[in-house]
């Protein structure tokens, strides 16, 4: 905004105050929603509107202004709905006409007047009364284009929502997705709970945590990376079906499918295993799609995806072998797996452990190709310290991840409820942590005590709400479906450079 425009808007603000008008009143008079007015009068023609001469009162933000001397048109926006208003010099008082002429785009107003139709058949309120509800001191953007404006969209999401219909559509769809997810679980007897965000020991996933400090107790705490260990404590406590939808925090990089804080749904069902949770996941996503978008066929990134039917279930070992020619279980140590990668011309990178290298192979060579809904199953023990061992191969665990649109949208397994096995694996994971794997799982003694009290056979599932919304909304990045994504710090502080213009 130029200094000239800023000064002009502030001048009009002071003129209102000087005239005894409160530009930010505390109360709003009687009104009808724009959606309701459109619904009631959509079928009325110009003749019937003129004959009835029924006044209506509406409120909204001025998003467009057009002045033609003795005639002024404006467009009001309220909760996504638009309605045109007009001020005709011959039809209203000089005070009212003058007030409308001095409005700025961005102002909030309440207007009262009868409805009429223009020559183009546009339903319009002919203003007889007008009241300022909030004076806008900055203009609204007219267009978004180019990289710099994309950056501004995410830093100033409020502007994005005002002018970008796709941003508003994504926000509404995300809300419907969460509502549908909650309804699905509630209908199946799951109890929604809340677990601690600040945790003395982080756990439940392979990720680096954010660290903070509690002054009163002089205690180091971590923002949770998962709800898992607390939710399973509740199952130990006799709540057989439990879930939480909430924010989790992982101190990792930012990409089109990663944000340091994101929304996760985690649910746990007693007397179930990972096969049951696959059935639950498939039914849940299909139900959410039906409720939120009205069907099972979607388009994501230019590719059609069909969520209906049975989803394929492919062991991780087979998926990696198919794409790389490497059998990870035949190369079950870091040096031999590195050698196998080099023999196939696949750079092994600097993965500190065998399990991390397996994960890297899958992420690079398999995951991007999983466009249609697919379950990848039966992960190595080293990658899954909280999952129950496979009855067919003790090197593997009963774990799966659902994939959609070339990315993982969740994680699930038959929960490990043998406290001795769990202790051994957490101690091994702690050794990996000491060896330099910053995403390895720490040892949680209190959780082990809870397992000794007794956890029934349990199936657990986590779904990334943001990624699911990204696919269903056909959004190219996670930022499109997160209201306020994390952004890189600005290069310089202070107000926008534009404000320095004369």
Describe the 3D structure.
The chain has two domains: 3-134, Nucleic acid-binding proteins (OB fold (Dihydrolipoamide Acetyltransferase, E2P)), CATH 2.40.50.140; 158-312 and 372-480, 2-Layer Sandwich (BirA Bifunctional Protein, domain 2). Helix content is 34%, strand content 24%. It contains 15 helices and 20 strands. It has helices spanning 3-18, 34-41, 46-52, 94-101, 146-155, 157-163, 165-187, 228-236, 274-293, 316-324, 334-343, 354-365, 419-434, 445-453, 465-472, and strands spanning 55-67, 71-78, 81-88, 108-117, 123-126, 129-134, 191-192, 198-199, 211-214, 219-223, 241-249, 261-270, 297-300, 303-306, 313-315, 374-380, 396-404, 407-408, 410-414, 458-464. Strands 7, 11, 12, 15, 16, 17, 18, 19 and 20 form a nine-stranded mixed sheet that branches. A hairpin with a 2-residue loop joins β2 (71-78) and β3. The model is unreliable at 493-502 (pLDDT under 50).
What's the short version?
This protein is α+β, with helices and mostly antiparallel strands. It is elongated.
Strand and helix layout:
Elements lengths: L2 H16 L15 H8 L4 H7 L2 E13 L3 E8 L2 E8 L5 H8 L6 E10 L5 E4 L2 E6 L11 H10 L1 H7 L1 H23 L3 E2 L5 E2 L11 E4 L4 E5 L4 H9 L4 E9 L11 E10 L3 H20 L3 E4 L2 E4 L6 E3 H9 L9 H10 L10 H12 L8 E7 L15 E9 L2 E2 L1 E5 L4 H16 L10 H9 L4 E7 H8 L30
Helix pairs in contact: 5-6, 6-7, 7-9, 7-15, 8-14, 11-12
């Amino acid at each position: 905004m130029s200094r000239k425009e800023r000064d002009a808007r502030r001048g009009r603000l002071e003129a209102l105050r000087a005239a005894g008008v409160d530009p930010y009143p505390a109360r709003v008079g009687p009104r009808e929603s724009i959606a309701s007015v459109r619904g009631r009068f959509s079928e009325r023609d110009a003749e019937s509107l003129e004959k009835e001469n029924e006044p209506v009162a509406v409120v909204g933000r001025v998003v467009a202004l057009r002045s033609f001397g003795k005639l002024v048109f404006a467009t009001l926006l309220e909760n996504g709905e638009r309605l045109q208003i007009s001020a005709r010099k011959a039809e209203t008082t000089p005070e009212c006409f003058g007030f409308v002429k001095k409005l700025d785009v961005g102002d909030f107003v309440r207007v009262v007047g009868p409805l009429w139709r223009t020559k183009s058949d546009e339903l319009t309120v002919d203003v007889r009364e007008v009241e300022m509800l909030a004076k806008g001191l900055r203009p609204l953007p007219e267009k978004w284009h180019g990289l710099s404006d994309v950056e501004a969209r995410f830093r100033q999401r409020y502007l994005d929502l005002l002018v970008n219909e796709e941003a508003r559509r994504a926000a509404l769809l995300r809300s419907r997705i969460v509502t549908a997810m909650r309804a699905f679980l509630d209908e199946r007897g799951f109890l929604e709970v809340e677990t601690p965000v600040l945790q003395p020991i982080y756990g439940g996933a392979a990720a680096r945590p954010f660290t903070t400090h509690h002054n009163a107790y002089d205690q180091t705490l971590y923002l949770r990376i998962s709800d898992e260990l607390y939710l399973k404590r509740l199952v130990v406590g006799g709540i057989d079906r439990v879930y939480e939808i909430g924010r989790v925090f992982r101190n990792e990089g930012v990409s089109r499918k990663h944000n340091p804080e994101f929304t996760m749904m985690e649910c746990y069902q007693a007397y179930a295993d990972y096969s049951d949770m696959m059935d639950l996941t498939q039914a849940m996503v299909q139900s959410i799609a039906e409720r939120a978008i009205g069907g099972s066929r979607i388009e994501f990134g230019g590719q059609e995806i069909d969520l209906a039917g049975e989803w394929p279930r492919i062991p991780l070992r087979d998926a990696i072998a198919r794409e790389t020619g490497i059998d990870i279980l035949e190369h079950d140590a870091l040096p031999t797996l590195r050698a196998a990668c080099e023999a196939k011309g696949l750079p092994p990178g600097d993965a500190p452990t065998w399990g991390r290298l397996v994960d890297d192979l899958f992420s690079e060579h398999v995951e991007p190709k999983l466009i249609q809904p697919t379950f990848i199953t039966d992960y190595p023990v080293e990658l899954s310290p909280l999952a129950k061992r496979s009855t067919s191969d003790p090197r593997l665990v009963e774990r799966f991840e659902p994939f959609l649109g070339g990315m993982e949208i969740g994680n699930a397994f038959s929960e490990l409820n043998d406290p001795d096995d769990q202790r051994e694996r957490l101690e091994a994971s702690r050794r990996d942590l000491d060896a330099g794997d910053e995403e390895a799982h720490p040892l949680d003694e209190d959780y082990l005590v809870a397992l000794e009290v007794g956890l029934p056979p349990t199936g657990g599932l986590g779904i990334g709400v943001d990624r699911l919304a990204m696919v269903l909304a056909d959004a190219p990045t996670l930022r499109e479906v997160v209201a306020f994504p994390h952004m890189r710090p600005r290069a310089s502080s202070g107000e926008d450079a534009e404000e320095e213009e004369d």
